[in-house]
Amino acid sequence: MVKTHKTPSLRKRLVRQVLTPLALTWLLGTSMTVGVSYFYAAKAFDRALLDDAMAMASRVVLGSQGLTLELSNQEMGSALFDQSERVYFSVRRLDGTFLAGHTSIKAALPQSPSTVLFSEVIHEGQWLRAVSVLQVQPLGFSVVMAQTKGSRQALLEKVVSLSVAPQLILLVLMALWLRHIIGLELKPLDDFQQSIDRRDARDLSPLLVRAQNTNIERLGVAINNLLDRLSHSMRAQREFSGNVAHELRTPLAGIRASAEYALSHTDPAVWREQLQRIASSELRADRLVEQLLALALAEEADTGVPLELVDVDAVVRDTVLRYLPRADAAGVDLGVQGIDQPVQWVANLALMEGALSNLLDNALRYGRAPQGGSRVTVSVSVAGPDTHHPTLELSVTDNGAGLGLQERQHLMQRGVRGLHAERLGQGAGLGLAIVSKFAQVMHARFELSPGPEGQGLCATLSFKRDPRAS
Fold first, then answer.
1. Which CATH number fits the domain 201-300, given the four candidates 3.90.850.10, 3.40.640.10, 1.10.287.130, 3.60.15.10?
2. Tally of CB atoms within 10 A around 40
3. H-helix or E-strand containing 468?
4. Is there a contact between 389 and 465 (Cβ–Cβ < 8 Å)?
């Protein structure tokens, strides 16, 4: 059994793609908020520490015995008092000799009296925040004031907890909301997928799409268009199979009957006659298969046939020359009109040749005159050459018995054979259907009308200058 890698659902991917940058943005924003808040809070602590250092420096005076720190015990207690921190100080002369305070407190000094220097020092195994002040009046001395950092750390933790926790809760709530909303938006897609899963493979009817957004709606339209094309293709295949089964039955049955009849006789003349019938039936079956294939290919290529500039006069000339021996053998006067000058038009070369061949074949089979000589004329003309919308008309006209209006309309359908074809036992009723389909693919119009003076039949293909224009 082949193991397949399970890919995440679209909902999970969307939630992940949305929440990942959102979480990164939240993390960056929170870090900046905490950093800025702690920076300014630390500034306030440092300012208070500096004020204490300046107040301590202001109590250093020059007496008879030199520099002294004039602080009473009460004032000393007030200077060193803090509700949550331990405060240390040290006053030293510029030569480094100790004057007052805690002898173990030492820190780097600023370069000039106009500046102060904040630093981190270690005292009794714990870090202290210290500020150093340098004075030169009345004699040079330095003051270092330091305090423990418990309040600062507690403030940082409080800022983090008050900034991060609420935003983290909001982020979780937003994730749950996004997951719910995305699920609701994708539910029509899930329903669409389930309706496809439940559908029988032979059911190509359009799917019902309940879309809340244009993306799913366009997907539904695209799938329904695909189903429509598949339905058209399968219908064409079924019709092609039905036509093959139905139309080949007659020539194959004739071949089998002729072969059985010949095998039941020993006279060579009978064999020859039956072999000729077999050859005739084979030719009919061969042409029938060609027509069926041409019709099937035309239906399959309904929207994909390239249109280009075609030399219509050359197509007509070559096709008529191919049918000329057959017309001579049948005693039909086959002629051409309108190709004295080159005629070019937008069409498809193969389909135009196929349509003209089928029209000539039909005319030579069924367009025989009831009395007198039979004539078949291929005509090329351009209607309205001086207008903005000229039309090319390619027609095949015979002087046969002709057809009534109802029969002309009836013959445009596939598999319908005319009265003359039934009587002669020829054709499969596909020729005109093929011409009609070829015309549709080339965006041309195909019409059947009475011949000149109401005699015979005129089959006309009308092409626009640009068939893709409306």
1. 1.10.287.130
2. 9
3. none
4. yes
Cα–Cα distance measured from residue 11 to residue 182, given in angstroms and rounded to the nearest whole number:
6
**Neighbour-count burial of 219, counting CB atoms closer than 10 A to its CB (0-12 exposed, 13-18 middle, 19+ buried):** middle
d(CA 261, CA 202): 45
Residue spans of the domains in the chain: they are: 10-156, 201-300, 304-464
- Does the reported pTM lie above 0.70? no
Q: Which helix (H) or strand (E) holds 120?
A: strand 116-123
CATH of domain 10-156: 3.30.450
Rounded to an integer, the average pLDDT of 80-105 is 84
Residues facing 93 on adjacent strands: 141
Rounded-to-10 torsion of CA 391, 414, 352, 364: -100
What would the 3-class secondary structure string for 124-148 be? CCEEEEEEEEEECCCCCEEEEEEEE
Which tens digits make up the pLDDT trace of 350-409? 888 888 988 998 888 888 888 888 999 999 999 876 667 789 999 999 998 887 777 766
Instruction: Report how far Cα 265 is from the mean position of its chain's Cα atoms.
Output: 69
